[in-house]
Amino acid sequence: MVQPSFDAFQAIADPSRRKMLRLLSKDSLTINSLGEHFDMSRPAVSKHVKILHAAGFISIQDIGRERHCTLKQDGFHHLQEWIDYFDKFWVSKLKKLETLLNNKSQNKK
Amino acid sequence: MVQPSFDAFQAIADPSRRKMLRLLSKDSLTINSLGEHFDMSRPAVSKHVKILHAAGFISIQDIGRERHCTLKQDGFHHLQEWIDYFDKFWVSKLKKLETLLNNKSQNKK
DNA sequence: ATAATACGTAACTTTTAAGTTACTCAAACG
DNA sequence: CGTTTGAGTAACTTAAAAGTTACGTATTAT
After folding, report:
1. Phi-psi region of B44 (alpha: psi -120 to 50; beta: other; left: phi over 0)
2. Is B77 on the interface with A (CB under 8 A)?
3. Where would I find the HTH arsR-type domain in this sequence (chains A, B) (predicted)?
């Protein structure tokens, strides 16, 4: 897994880029076929693809003059790790609450 | 869970806001105490907090003239759901590969 | 009652992101 | 070998985000 050169969080901040990832979850697509789903110029699509690639969300395979974009796990992993950190926070918060409740019920005895 | 009025993905696109969430995972903080960790004016901090709140990442409790910010799960859930969708994609991709490999080994027999 | 504190709002500036058009290049096609 | 097709780059415009200062308003402290 190569170090991403673009912030994953910023990459998915744009709705068009999120839509692109959704489309790519159905099928590998070229720049043009991807662009058919959007109301924007091809260079704009190109830019978005570049960002998604730099952030590790897609891999690109050049076949002749076409560029085939495929979903890649790296970017998603990065996000998952971030969320996992906070997940731990909730778990420990629950544990604290649990301990608190246990102590209370013990006091009643 | 109230419908968020701000896009969760955009909310965490900003590094300062992500740092704020990290800080809040350690402790509930007021606007000012939060701001101490940043090199920006207090109104700027206020704006970020507003966004995090609107996106469902924090809850705010007014105590006198202070505003206490606490981490909230809603925003994180939203993100997790999004990632989960793609997780399914990887799983099904793996299954397809598995089936493919099984068929190949059967042909050998 | 007055001063200090904690914060929000408004108006504005600056920065950055997203989009455009015009152009270029290389691969495929006839 | 000229032409079409798929895509990248450069220069620019537009729009949105992030930040600022100046000011207003409750709440707390003296």
Report:
1. alpha
2. no
3. 1-93
* Chain A residues inside the 8 Å CB shell of B89: 25, 71
The whole-angstrom separation of Cα A16 and Cα A13 is 9
* Strand C proximity list, CB < 7 Å: A 10, 13-14, 16, 39-41, 43-44, 47-48, 51, 63-65; B 30-33, 42-43, 46-47, 49-50, 65-67
CB atoms within 10 A of CB B48: 20
- Of all nucleotides, the one whose C1′ comes closest to residue A66's CA is D6
Cross-strand bridge partners of residue B40: none
Query: Mind telling me how many Å the CA of A109 is from chain B's nearest CA?
Result: 33
Token code pair at residue A104: 């209370």
The full set of domains in chain B, from first to last, is: 8-108 (1.10.10.10)
List the A64 CA – D4 C1' distance (angstroms). 15
* Strand boundaries in chain B, DSSP class E: 29-30, 58-63, 66-71
Residues B35-81: tens digit of each pLDDT: 999 999 999 999 999 999 999 999 999 999 999 999 999 999 999 99
Could you tell me the two tokens for A87? 């997940």
